[in-house]
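Forum: Protein Structure Q&A
Topic: Joint prediction for protein chains with partners

I've read a bunch of threads here and the consensus seems to be that you should model interacting components together rather than docking separate models afterwards. I'd like to see that in practice. Below is the full input, 578 residues plus whatever partners are listed. Could one of the regulars post the assembled result?
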Amino acid sequence: MASSQFHGLQLVRVSSPSQLFVSTAFQHGRVTFQRKSNHLVYASTNNFNRDHHLQSKVETVLDSLKWDDKGLVVAIAQNIDTGAILMQGFANREAVATTITGGKATFYSRSRSTLWTKGETSNNFINVHDIALDCDRDSIIYRGKPDGPTCHTGAETCYYTSVFDLLEDQQSGGDKFLLTTLNSLESTIAKRKGELGVPQTGKPSWTRRLLLDEKLLCSKIREEADELCRTLEENEDKSRSASEMADVLYHSMVLLGLRDVKMEDVLEILRHRFSQSGVEEKSSRKTQG
Amino acid sequence: MASSQFHGLQLVRVSSPSQLFVSTAFQHGRVTFQRKSNHLVYASTNNFNRDHHLQSKVETVLDSLKWDDKGLVVAIAQNIDTGAILMQGFANREAVATTITGGKATFYSRSRSTLWTKGETSNNFINVHDIALDCDRDSIIYRGKPDGPTCHTGAETCYYTSVFDLLEDQQSGGDKFLLTTLNSLESTIAKRKGELGVPQTGKPSWTRRLLLDEKLLCSKIREEADELCRTLEENEDKSRSASEMADVLYHSMVLLGLRDVKMEDVLEILRHRFSQSGVEEKSSRKTQG
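Posted by a regular:
Agreed with the consensus. Here's the joint model:
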Protein backbone atom coordinates (compact mmCIF):
# COMPACT_ATOMS: atom_id res chain seq x y z
CA MET A 1 0.00 0.00 0.00
CA ALA A 2 1.37 3.36 -0.94
CA SER A 3 1.79 6.03 1.63
CA SER A 4 0.39 9.44 1.13
CA GLN A 5 3.39 11.41 2.15
CA PHE A 6 3.73 14.27 -0.23
CA HIS A 7 7.11 15.90 -0.29
CA GLY A 8 8.06 16.13 -3.91
CA LEU A 9 10.66 13.43 -4.19
CA GLN A 10 10.10 12.14 -0.73
CA LEU A 11 7.48 9.58 -1.52
CA VAL A 12 7.49 6.63 0.79
CA ARG A 13 5.73 3.35 0.19
CA VAL A 14 4.70 1.32 3.18
CA SER A 15 4.01 -2.34 2.82
CA SER A 16 0.95 -2.58 5.00
CA PRO A 17 -1.58 -0.13 6.32
CA SER A 18 -0.42 -0.65 9.87
CA GLN A 19 3.24 -0.15 9.11
CA LEU A 20 4.22 3.31 10.20
CA PHE A 21 7.11 5.11 8.71
CA VAL A 22 9.11 8.05 9.92
CA SER A 23 10.39 10.03 7.02
CA THR A 24 13.35 12.30 6.68
CA ALA A 25 10.97 15.17 6.33
CA PHE A 26 9.48 14.20 9.66
CA GLN A 27 12.89 14.02 11.25
CA HIS A 28 13.78 17.38 9.77
CA GLY A 29 10.79 18.96 11.34
CA ARG A 30 8.57 19.24 8.33
CA VAL A 31 5.01 18.17 8.66
CA THR A 32 4.26 14.75 7.32
CA PHE A 33 1.43 12.27 7.08
CA GLN A 34 1.51 8.81 8.49
CA ARG A 35 -0.72 5.97 7.50
CA LYS A 36 -2.07 4.19 10.55
CA SER A 37 -4.75 1.51 10.56
CA ASN A 38 -5.66 2.31 6.99
CA HIS A 39 -6.22 5.99 7.43
CA LEU A 40 -3.87 8.90 7.45
CA VAL A 41 -3.08 10.92 10.49
CA TYR A 42 -1.20 14.14 10.64
CA ALA A 43 2.05 13.95 12.55
CA SER A 44 4.34 16.69 13.70
CA THR A 45 7.99 17.06 14.48
CA ASN A 46 7.83 17.18 18.18
CA ASN A 47 5.55 14.26 18.71
CA PHE A 48 2.64 16.33 19.85
CA ASN A 49 -0.46 16.48 17.82
CA ARG A 50 -0.98 19.34 15.42
CA ASP A 51 -4.10 17.91 13.85
CA HIS A 52 -6.08 21.03 14.35
CA HIS A 53 -3.44 23.27 12.83
CA LEU A 54 -3.10 21.04 9.80
CA GLN A 55 -6.80 20.62 9.30
CA SER A 56 -7.13 24.35 9.15
CA LYS A 57 -4.34 24.40 6.57
CA VAL A 58 -6.20 21.84 4.47
CA GLU A 59 -9.25 24.11 4.67
CA THR A 60 -7.13 27.06 3.54
CA VAL A 61 -5.88 25.10 0.53
CA LEU A 62 -9.42 24.01 -0.31
CA ASP A 63 -10.57 27.62 0.01
CA SER A 64 -7.94 28.61 -2.54
CA LEU A 65 -9.38 26.35 -5.25
CA LYS A 66 -11.66 27.94 -7.84
CA TRP A 67 -14.75 25.79 -7.68
CA ASP A 68 -17.08 26.18 -10.66
CA ASP A 69 -20.77 27.04 -10.43
CA LYS A 70 -21.45 23.43 -9.47
CA GLY A 71 -18.72 23.46 -6.81
CA LEU A 72 -16.36 21.31 -8.87
CA VAL A 73 -12.84 21.30 -10.27
CA VAL A 74 -11.54 19.04 -13.05
CA ALA A 75 -9.55 16.17 -11.52
CA ILE A 76 -7.11 14.20 -13.65
CA ALA A 77 -5.52 10.97 -12.40
CA GLN A 78 -2.00 10.29 -13.67
CA ASN A 79 0.41 7.41 -13.14
CA ILE A 80 3.31 9.02 -11.31
CA ASP A 81 5.88 6.66 -12.83
CA THR A 82 4.88 6.38 -16.47
CA GLY A 83 3.05 9.69 -16.83
CA ALA A 84 0.05 7.89 -18.34
CA ILE A 85 -3.20 9.80 -17.88
CA LEU A 86 -5.48 7.21 -16.31
CA MET A 87 -8.86 8.94 -16.15
CA GLN A 88 -10.49 12.30 -15.63
CA GLY A 89 -13.39 13.16 -13.45
CA PHE A 90 -14.59 16.05 -11.33
CA ALA A 91 -14.01 16.69 -7.66
CA ASN A 92 -15.91 18.78 -5.16
CA ARG A 93 -14.45 20.08 -1.90
CA GLU A 94 -15.25 16.86 -0.05
CA ALA A 95 -13.66 14.71 -2.78
CA VAL A 96 -10.38 16.62 -2.65
CA ALA A 97 -10.38 16.60 1.16
CA THR A 98 -11.03 12.85 1.14
CA THR A 99 -8.18 12.30 -1.33
CA ILE A 100 -5.80 14.37 0.82
CA THR A 101 -6.61 12.52 4.02
CA GLY A 102 -7.41 9.10 2.59
CA GLY A 103 -4.70 8.86 -0.05
CA LYS A 104 -7.02 7.36 -2.69
CA ALA A 105 -8.20 9.29 -5.74
CA THR A 106 -11.75 10.39 -4.99
CA PHE A 107 -14.17 12.15 -7.29
CA TYR A 108 -17.69 13.55 -7.37
CA SER A 109 -20.06 11.80 -9.72
CA ARG A 110 -22.19 14.37 -11.47
CA SER A 111 -24.62 11.77 -12.76
CA ARG A 112 -25.14 10.09 -9.39
CA SER A 113 -24.61 13.26 -7.31
CA THR A 114 -22.37 11.36 -4.97
CA LEU A 115 -18.79 11.07 -3.84
CA TRP A 116 -16.95 8.08 -5.20
CA THR A 117 -13.50 6.71 -4.65
CA LYS A 118 -12.07 5.08 -7.77
CA GLY A 119 -11.71 1.40 -6.88
CA GLU A 120 -14.47 1.24 -4.30
CA THR A 121 -16.19 -1.44 -6.39
CA SER A 122 -13.30 -2.79 -8.50
CA ASN A 123 -10.64 -2.58 -5.79
CA ASN A 124 -8.44 -0.88 -8.37
CA PHE A 125 -7.70 2.16 -6.25
CA ILE A 126 -5.37 4.92 -7.36
CA ASN A 127 -2.96 5.58 -4.50
CA VAL A 128 -2.26 9.29 -4.61
CA HIS A 129 1.26 10.47 -3.83
CA ASP A 130 0.82 14.12 -4.65
CA ILE A 131 -1.83 16.53 -5.85
CA ALA A 132 -0.89 19.24 -8.33
CA LEU A 133 -2.90 22.42 -8.78
CA ASP A 134 -2.83 24.41 -11.98
CA CYS A 135 -2.14 28.14 -12.11
CA ASP A 136 -5.85 28.94 -12.18
CA ARG A 137 -6.59 26.56 -9.31
CA ASP A 138 -9.57 25.10 -11.16
CA SER A 139 -7.88 21.90 -12.31
CA ILE A 140 -5.96 19.34 -10.30
CA ILE A 141 -3.88 16.23 -10.92
CA TYR A 142 -4.02 13.22 -8.64
CA ARG A 143 -0.56 11.80 -9.21
CA GLY A 144 -0.36 8.23 -8.01
CA LYS A 145 -0.06 4.53 -8.57
CA PRO A 146 -3.03 2.45 -9.70
CA ASP A 147 -3.65 -0.92 -8.04
CA GLY A 148 -4.85 -2.29 -11.39
CA PRO A 149 -6.50 -1.23 -14.65
CA THR A 150 -8.26 2.08 -14.23
CA CYS A 151 -10.89 1.80 -16.95
CA HIS A 152 -14.11 -0.12 -16.33
CA THR A 153 -13.38 -1.86 -19.66
CA GLY A 154 -10.28 -3.41 -18.12
CA ALA A 155 -7.94 -1.12 -20.06
CA GLU A 156 -5.00 0.41 -18.25
CA THR A 157 -6.35 3.89 -18.90
CA CYS A 158 -9.67 5.25 -20.09
CA TYR A 159 -7.96 6.96 -23.03
CA TYR A 160 -7.59 4.02 -25.38
CA THR A 161 -9.19 5.47 -28.49
CA SER A 162 -7.21 7.45 -31.05
CA VAL A 163 -9.11 9.96 -33.16
CA PHE A 164 -6.76 9.20 -36.01
CA ASP A 165 -7.30 5.49 -35.72
CA LEU A 166 -11.00 6.24 -36.05
CA LEU A 167 -10.38 8.37 -39.13
CA GLU A 168 -8.46 5.49 -40.65
CA ASP A 169 -11.07 2.89 -39.67
CA GLN A 170 -8.57 1.21 -37.39
CA GLN A 171 -10.10 -0.69 -34.53
CA SER A 172 -9.33 0.78 -31.15
CA GLY A 173 -9.75 -1.90 -28.57
CA GLY A 174 -9.59 -2.00 -24.82
CA ASP A 175 -6.17 -3.59 -25.03
CA LYS A 176 -4.69 -0.55 -26.68
CA PHE A 177 -4.07 2.77 -25.10
CA LEU A 178 -2.43 5.87 -26.36
CA LEU A 179 1.06 6.16 -25.20
CA THR A 180 3.91 8.43 -24.42
CA THR A 181 7.17 7.74 -26.23
CA LEU A 182 8.70 5.35 -23.70
CA ASN A 183 5.47 3.37 -23.44
CA SER A 184 5.17 3.28 -27.22
CA LEU A 185 8.67 1.91 -27.58
CA GLU A 186 8.00 -0.70 -24.93
CA SER A 187 4.78 -1.66 -26.64
CA THR A 188 6.51 -2.01 -30.02
CA ILE A 189 9.19 -4.26 -28.53
CA ALA A 190 6.50 -6.40 -26.87
CA LYS A 191 4.73 -6.66 -30.21
CA ARG A 192 7.92 -7.81 -31.94
CA LYS A 193 8.42 -10.36 -29.18
CA GLY A 194 4.90 -11.65 -29.70
CA GLU A 195 5.63 -12.12 -33.39
CA LEU A 196 8.76 -14.22 -32.82
CA GLY A 197 6.88 -17.45 -33.43
CA VAL A 198 5.52 -16.19 -36.74
CA PRO A 199 7.74 -16.96 -39.73
CA GLN A 200 8.69 -13.82 -41.64
CA THR A 201 9.74 -13.18 -45.15
CA GLY A 202 12.31 -10.55 -45.95
CA LYS A 203 14.88 -9.02 -43.71
CA PRO A 204 13.99 -9.27 -40.03
CA SER A 205 13.66 -6.04 -38.08
CA TRP A 206 16.55 -5.11 -35.84
CA THR A 207 14.41 -5.63 -32.75
CA ARG A 208 13.53 -9.13 -33.94
CA ARG A 209 17.19 -9.93 -34.49
CA LEU A 210 18.09 -8.70 -31.02
CA LEU A 211 15.27 -10.67 -29.44
CA LEU A 212 16.42 -13.82 -31.20
CA ASP A 213 20.12 -13.41 -30.43
CA GLU A 214 20.97 -12.75 -26.78
CA LYS A 215 24.67 -12.61 -27.53
CA LEU A 216 24.15 -9.90 -30.12
CA LEU A 217 21.82 -8.02 -27.76
CA CYS A 218 24.27 -8.05 -24.88
CA SER A 219 27.18 -7.05 -27.07
CA LYS A 220 25.12 -4.12 -28.35
CA ILE A 221 24.13 -2.98 -24.84
CA ARG A 222 27.77 -3.01 -23.71
CA GLU A 223 28.85 -1.30 -26.91
CA GLU A 224 26.24 1.45 -26.66
CA ALA A 225 27.06 2.11 -23.00
CA ASP A 226 30.69 2.41 -24.00
CA GLU A 227 29.83 4.81 -26.81
CA LEU A 228 27.73 6.92 -24.44
CA CYS A 229 30.74 7.17 -22.10
CA ARG A 230 33.01 8.12 -24.96
CA THR A 231 30.83 11.11 -25.83
CA LEU A 232 31.85 12.45 -22.42
CA GLU A 233 35.43 11.23 -22.40
CA GLU A 234 36.11 12.57 -25.87
CA ASN A 235 33.97 15.66 -25.37
CA GLU A 236 31.83 14.99 -28.40
CA ASP A 237 28.89 17.14 -29.38
CA LYS A 238 25.91 17.15 -26.98
CA SER A 239 23.70 15.72 -29.68
CA ARG A 240 25.94 12.64 -29.74
CA SER A 241 25.25 12.01 -26.06
CA ALA A 242 21.51 12.25 -26.68
CA SER A 243 21.75 9.88 -29.62
CA GLU A 244 23.90 7.34 -27.78
CA MET A 245 21.59 7.50 -24.77
CA ALA A 246 18.71 6.70 -27.10
CA ASP A 247 20.69 3.63 -28.23
CA VAL A 248 21.40 2.56 -24.65
CA LEU A 249 17.75 2.99 -23.73
CA TYR A 250 16.41 1.14 -26.76
CA HIS A 251 18.76 -1.84 -26.52
CA SER A 252 18.30 -2.11 -22.75
CA MET A 253 14.56 -2.04 -23.22
CA VAL A 254 14.79 -4.94 -25.67
CA LEU A 255 16.51 -6.87 -22.88
CA LEU A 256 13.74 -5.86 -20.47
CA GLY A 257 11.18 -6.99 -23.05
CA LEU A 258 12.89 -10.34 -23.35
CA ARG A 259 12.72 -10.72 -19.59
CA ASP A 260 9.13 -9.44 -19.26
CA VAL A 261 10.24 -6.55 -17.10
CA LYS A 262 8.17 -3.38 -17.39
CA MET A 263 9.77 0.05 -17.53
CA GLU A 264 7.17 1.06 -14.96
CA ASP A 265 8.81 -1.35 -12.51
CA VAL A 266 12.21 0.18 -13.24
CA LEU A 267 10.85 3.68 -12.72
CA GLU A 268 9.19 2.62 -9.49
CA ILE A 269 12.53 1.31 -8.22
CA LEU A 270 14.12 4.65 -9.03
CA ARG A 271 11.31 6.52 -7.31
CA HIS A 272 11.72 4.47 -4.17
CA ARG A 273 15.47 4.90 -4.16
CA PHE A 274 15.19 8.62 -4.48
CA SER A 275 12.58 8.70 -1.74
CA GLN A 276 15.17 7.65 0.77
CA SER A 277 16.78 10.00 3.24
CA GLY A 278 18.57 13.19 2.24
CA VAL A 279 21.45 11.25 0.83
CA GLU A 280 19.01 9.94 -1.68
CA GLU A 281 21.51 8.41 -4.02
CA LYS A 282 23.12 6.19 -1.42
CA SER A 283 20.95 3.27 -2.31
CA SER A 284 21.96 3.56 -5.94
CA ARG A 285 25.46 2.93 -4.82
CA LYS A 286 26.25 -0.73 -4.69
CA THR A 287 29.99 -0.55 -5.10
CA GLN A 288 32.12 2.42 -4.32
CA GLY A 289 34.26 3.37 -7.27
CA MET B 1 7.25 22.22 -37.17
CA ALA B 2 5.58 19.00 -36.26
CA SER B 3 3.39 17.24 -38.69
CA SER B 4 -0.04 16.17 -37.79
CA GLN B 5 0.11 12.71 -39.08
CA PHE B 6 -1.50 10.52 -36.52
CA HIS B 7 -0.74 6.86 -36.84
CA GLY B 8 0.22 5.67 -33.42
CA LEU B 9 3.94 5.33 -33.68
CA GLN B 10 4.11 6.79 -37.14
CA LEU B 11 4.63 10.37 -36.15
CA VAL B 12 6.62 12.36 -38.63
CA ARG B 13 8.18 15.74 -38.02
CA VAL B 14 8.68 18.03 -40.97
CA SER B 15 11.18 20.83 -40.79
CA SER B 16 9.16 23.50 -42.55
CA PRO B 17 5.49 24.02 -43.29
CA SER B 18 6.08 23.74 -46.99
CA GLN B 19 8.07 20.55 -46.75
CA LEU B 20 5.82 17.74 -47.74
CA PHE B 21 6.39 14.24 -46.58
CA VAL B 22 5.12 10.97 -47.84
CA SER B 23 4.77 8.53 -45.03
CA THR B 24 4.90 4.78 -44.95
CA ALA B 25 1.25 4.82 -44.06
CA PHE B 26 0.58 6.79 -47.19
CA GLN B 27 2.60 4.39 -49.27
CA HIS B 28 0.77 1.48 -47.72
CA GLY B 29 -2.51 2.94 -48.72
CA ARG B 30 -3.69 4.20 -45.38
CA VAL B 31 -5.11 7.66 -45.20
CA THR B 32 -2.71 10.28 -44.01
CA PHE B 33 -2.43 14.00 -43.54
CA GLN B 34 0.10 16.19 -45.23
CA ARG B 35 1.09 19.64 -44.21
CA LYS B 36 1.17 21.98 -47.15
CA SER B 37 1.65 25.74 -46.99
CA ASN B 38 0.99 25.72 -43.29
CA HIS B 39 -2.29 23.93 -43.37
CA LEU B 40 -3.13 20.30 -43.44
CA VAL B 41 -4.65 18.56 -46.37
CA TYR B 42 -6.00 15.10 -46.55
CA ALA B 43 -4.19 12.83 -48.94
CA SER B 44 -5.09 9.44 -50.21
CA THR B 45 -3.30 6.44 -51.53
CA ASN B 46 -4.02 6.81 -55.11
CA ASN B 47 -3.23 10.45 -55.51
CA PHE B 48 -6.80 11.52 -56.02
CA ASN B 49 -8.53 13.66 -53.53
CA ARG B 50 -10.65 12.10 -50.84
CA ASP B 51 -11.19 15.32 -48.91
CA HIS B 52 -14.92 14.95 -48.85
CA HIS B 53 -14.82 11.39 -47.59
CA LEU B 54 -12.39 12.30 -44.82
CA GLN B 55 -14.24 15.41 -43.81
CA SER B 56 -17.34 13.36 -43.33
CA LYS B 57 -15.29 10.96 -41.21
CA VAL B 58 -14.13 13.86 -39.05
CA GLU B 59 -17.77 14.84 -38.63
CA THR B 60 -18.64 11.29 -37.61
CA VAL B 61 -15.91 11.31 -34.97
CA LEU B 62 -17.06 14.69 -33.70
CA ASP B 63 -20.64 13.37 -33.58
CA SER B 64 -19.46 10.53 -31.38
CA LEU B 65 -18.15 12.86 -28.67
CA LYS B 66 -20.39 13.47 -25.65
CA TRP B 67 -20.60 17.23 -25.50
CA ASP B 68 -21.86 18.59 -22.19
CA ASP B 69 -24.80 20.97 -21.77
CA LYS B 70 -22.52 23.80 -22.91
CA GLY B 71 -21.30 21.85 -25.92
CA LEU B 72 -17.89 21.16 -24.40
CA VAL B 73 -15.54 18.30 -23.54
CA VAL B 74 -12.59 18.47 -21.16
CA ALA B 75 -9.36 18.80 -23.19
CA ILE B 76 -6.01 17.95 -21.58
CA ALA B 77 -2.72 18.79 -23.29
CA GLN B 78 0.13 16.37 -22.62
CA ASN B 79 3.77 16.30 -23.71
CA ILE B 80 3.97 13.17 -25.84
CA ASP B 81 7.60 12.49 -24.91
CA THR B 82 7.76 13.19 -21.17
CA GLY B 83 4.12 12.54 -20.31
CA ALA B 84 3.95 15.90 -18.50
CA ILE B 85 0.43 17.29 -18.33
CA LEU B 86 0.84 20.79 -19.72
CA MET B 87 -2.57 22.38 -19.26
CA GLN B 88 -6.28 21.63 -19.27
CA GLY B 89 -9.04 23.53 -20.91
CA PHE B 90 -12.33 22.84 -22.62
CA ALA B 91 -13.03 22.26 -26.28
CA ASN B 92 -16.17 22.64 -28.33
CA ARG B 93 -16.79 20.94 -31.66
CA GLU B 94 -15.03 23.67 -33.59
CA ALA B 95 -11.98 23.57 -31.30
CA VAL B 96 -11.54 19.83 -31.79
CA ALA B 97 -12.07 20.13 -35.55
CA THR B 98 -9.52 22.95 -35.70
CA THR B 99 -7.02 20.87 -33.74
CA ILE B 100 -7.51 17.89 -36.05
CA THR B 101 -7.03 19.90 -39.21
CA GLY B 102 -4.60 22.55 -37.94
CA GLY B 103 -2.39 20.39 -35.77
CA LYS B 104 -2.22 22.92 -32.90
CA ALA B 105 -4.00 22.42 -29.58
CA THR B 106 -7.12 24.58 -29.72
CA PHE B 107 -9.62 25.20 -26.95
CA TYR B 108 -12.82 27.09 -26.25
CA SER B 109 -12.53 29.87 -23.71
CA ARG B 110 -15.56 29.81 -21.47
CA SER B 111 -14.80 33.23 -20.02
CA ARG B 112 -14.30 34.93 -23.38
CA SER B 113 -16.78 32.73 -25.27
CA THR B 114 -14.29 32.30 -28.06
CA LEU B 115 -12.07 29.75 -29.75
CA TRP B 116 -8.40 30.07 -28.90
CA THR B 117 -5.33 28.25 -30.05
CA LYS B 118 -2.75 27.89 -27.31
CA GLY B 119 0.23 29.95 -28.51
CA GLU B 120 -1.69 32.42 -30.66
CA THR B 121 -0.31 35.26 -28.54
CA SER B 122 2.81 33.67 -26.99
CA ASN B 123 3.84 31.63 -30.05
CA ASN B 124 4.21 28.68 -27.70
CA PHE B 125 1.97 26.38 -29.67
CA ILE B 126 1.36 22.78 -28.74
CA ASN B 127 1.88 20.70 -31.88
CA VAL B 128 -0.59 17.87 -31.61
CA HIS B 129 0.49 14.44 -32.80
CA ASP B 130 -2.51 12.48 -31.66
CA ILE B 131 -5.81 12.95 -29.91
CA ALA B 132 -7.01 10.38 -27.40
CA LEU B 133 -10.64 9.95 -26.42
CA ASP B 134 -11.69 8.42 -23.14
CA CYS B 135 -14.17 5.56 -22.83
CA ASP B 136 -17.03 7.98 -22.16
CA ARG B 137 -16.03 10.24 -25.05
CA ASP B 138 -16.42 13.33 -22.89
CA SER B 139 -12.72 13.90 -22.24
CA ILE B 140 -9.86 14.13 -24.70
CA ILE B 141 -6.08 14.38 -24.62
CA TYR B 142 -4.14 16.51 -27.07
CA ARG B 143 -0.85 14.65 -27.13
CA GLY B 144 1.90 16.79 -28.60
CA LYS B 145 5.06 18.79 -28.36
CA PRO B 146 5.06 22.30 -26.96
CA ASP B 147 7.10 24.99 -28.74
CA GLY B 148 7.93 26.53 -25.37
CA PRO B 149 6.61 26.93 -21.83
CA THR B 150 2.88 26.29 -21.75
CA CYS B 151 1.91 28.33 -18.68
CA HIS B 152 1.39 32.08 -18.95
CA THR B 153 3.69 32.34 -15.90
CA GLY B 154 6.54 30.96 -18.00
CA ALA B 155 6.45 27.60 -16.26
CA GLU B 156 6.76 24.48 -18.37
CA THR B 157 3.32 23.34 -17.27
CA CYS B 158 0.43 25.02 -15.50
CA TYR B 159 0.55 22.41 -12.74
CA TYR B 160 3.45 23.74 -10.70
CA THR B 161 1.79 23.90 -7.28
CA SER B 162 1.82 20.95 -4.92
CA VAL B 163 -0.98 20.74 -2.38
CA PHE B 164 1.45 19.18 0.03
CA ASP B 165 3.99 21.91 -0.44
CA LEU B 166 1.20 24.31 0.49
CA LEU B 167 0.35 22.28 3.57
CA GLU B 168 3.99 22.48 4.60
CA ASP B 169 4.28 26.20 3.86
CA GLN B 170 6.76 25.48 1.11
CA GLN B 171 6.89 28.05 -1.61
CA SER B 172 5.72 26.78 -4.96
CA GLY B 173 7.17 28.94 -7.64
CA GLY B 174 6.78 29.11 -11.37
CA ASP B 175 10.13 27.43 -11.78
CA LYS B 176 8.90 24.24 -10.16
CA PHE B 177 6.48 21.79 -11.61
CA LEU B 178 5.24 18.49 -10.38
CA LEU B 179 6.96 15.67 -11.99
CA THR B 180 6.79 12.08 -13.05
CA THR B 181 9.56 9.82 -11.82
CA LEU B 182 11.97 10.28 -14.72
CA ASN B 183 11.54 14.06 -14.63
CA SER B 184 12.01 14.07 -10.86
CA LEU B 185 15.24 12.15 -11.14
CA GLU B 186 16.50 14.47 -13.85
CA SER B 187 15.57 17.47 -11.74
CA THR B 188 17.40 16.06 -8.71
CA ILE B 189 20.54 15.46 -10.76
CA ALA B 190 20.36 19.02 -12.14
CA LYS B 191 20.00 20.32 -8.59
CA ARG B 192 23.10 18.41 -7.47
CA LYS B 193 24.96 19.78 -10.44
CA GLY B 194 23.92 23.31 -9.49
CA GLU B 195 25.30 22.73 -5.99
CA LEU B 196 28.74 21.61 -7.20
CA GLY B 197 30.25 25.04 -6.54
CA VAL B 198 28.95 25.09 -2.98
CA PRO B 199 31.33 23.58 -0.41
CA GLN B 200 29.73 20.77 1.53
CA THR B 201 30.41 19.29 4.90
CA GLY B 202 30.01 15.60 5.49
CA LYS B 203 29.99 12.81 3.02
CA PRO B 204 29.09 13.92 -0.51
CA SER B 205 26.06 12.36 -2.14
CA TRP B 206 26.73 9.69 -4.72
CA THR B 207 25.38 11.91 -7.48
CA ARG B 208 27.79 14.68 -6.43
CA ARG B 209 30.70 12.26 -6.50
CA LEU B 210 29.75 11.03 -9.97
CA LEU B 211 29.35 14.58 -11.25
CA LEU B 212 32.79 15.48 -9.93
CA ASP B 213 34.57 12.39 -11.22
CA GLU B 214 34.01 11.59 -14.90
CA LYS B 215 36.24 8.55 -14.70
CA LEU B 216 34.18 7.11 -11.85
CA LEU B 217 30.96 7.95 -13.71
CA CYS B 218 32.02 6.25 -16.93
CA SER B 219 33.34 3.20 -15.13
CA LYS B 220 29.97 2.91 -13.35
CA ILE B 221 27.96 3.24 -16.57
CA ARG B 222 30.00 0.49 -18.23
CA GLU B 223 29.78 -1.65 -15.10
CA GLU B 224 26.02 -1.28 -14.75
CA ALA B 225 25.46 -2.06 -18.45
CA ASP B 226 27.56 -5.16 -17.99
CA GLU B 227 25.58 -6.17 -14.90
CA LEU B 228 22.31 -5.66 -16.78
CA CYS B 229 23.56 -8.00 -19.51
CA ARG B 230 24.63 -10.57 -16.97
CA THR B 231 21.10 -10.77 -15.54
CA LEU B 232 20.14 -12.14 -18.97
CA GLU B 233 23.26 -14.19 -19.61
CA GLU B 234 23.14 -15.80 -16.20
CA ASN B 235 19.36 -16.01 -16.16
CA GLU B 236 19.07 -14.14 -12.88
CA ASP B 237 15.77 -13.24 -11.31
CA LYS B 238 13.60 -10.74 -13.23
CA SER B 239 13.80 -8.31 -10.33
CA ARG B 240 17.57 -8.16 -10.84
CA SER B 241 17.07 -6.99 -14.42
CA ALA B 242 14.74 -4.24 -13.21
CA SER B 243 17.19 -3.18 -10.54
CA GLU B 244 20.19 -3.16 -12.88
CA MET B 245 18.22 -1.24 -15.47
CA ALA B 246 17.46 1.34 -12.79
CA ASP B 247 21.22 1.61 -12.22
CA VAL B 248 21.95 1.96 -15.92
CA LEU B 249 19.28 4.63 -16.24
CA TYR B 250 20.38 6.60 -13.20
CA HIS B 251 24.08 6.63 -14.01
CA SER B 252 23.46 7.42 -17.67
CA MET B 253 21.20 10.28 -16.63
CA VAL B 254 23.99 11.70 -14.48
CA LEU B 255 26.12 11.76 -17.63
CA LEU B 256 23.30 13.49 -19.50
CA GLY B 257 23.03 15.99 -16.66
CA LEU B 258 26.73 16.70 -16.87
CA ARG B 259 26.36 17.36 -20.58
CA ASP B 260 23.14 19.40 -20.26
CA VAL B 261 21.21 16.91 -22.34
CA LYS B 262 17.52 16.55 -21.50
CA MET B 263 15.81 13.17 -21.35
CA GLU B 264 13.07 14.77 -23.42
CA ASP B 265 15.57 15.15 -26.26
CA VAL B 266 16.53 11.50 -25.96
CA LEU B 267 12.89 10.45 -26.00
CA GLU B 268 12.22 12.65 -29.01
CA ILE B 269 15.07 10.93 -30.86
CA LEU B 270 13.52 7.56 -30.06
CA ARG B 271 10.11 8.74 -31.20
CA HIS B 272 11.49 9.93 -34.50
CA ARG B 273 13.43 6.73 -35.06
CA PHE B 274 10.40 4.62 -34.42
CA SER B 275 8.35 6.82 -36.72
CA GLN B 276 10.40 5.64 -39.65
CA SER B 277 9.22 3.10 -42.15
CA GLY B 278 7.95 -0.35 -41.24
CA VAL B 279 11.42 -1.52 -40.41
CA GLU B 280 11.33 1.03 -37.67
CA GLU B 281 14.38 -0.12 -35.83
CA LYS B 282 16.72 0.13 -38.78
CA SER B 283 17.81 3.60 -37.82
CA SER B 284 18.75 2.36 -34.37
CA ARG B 285 21.20 0.11 -36.05
CA LYS B 286 24.53 1.77 -36.54
CA THR B 287 26.69 -1.31 -36.71
CA GLN B 288 25.50 -4.76 -37.53
CA GLY B 289 26.52 -7.22 -34.85
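Chain A has nine helices and nine strands.
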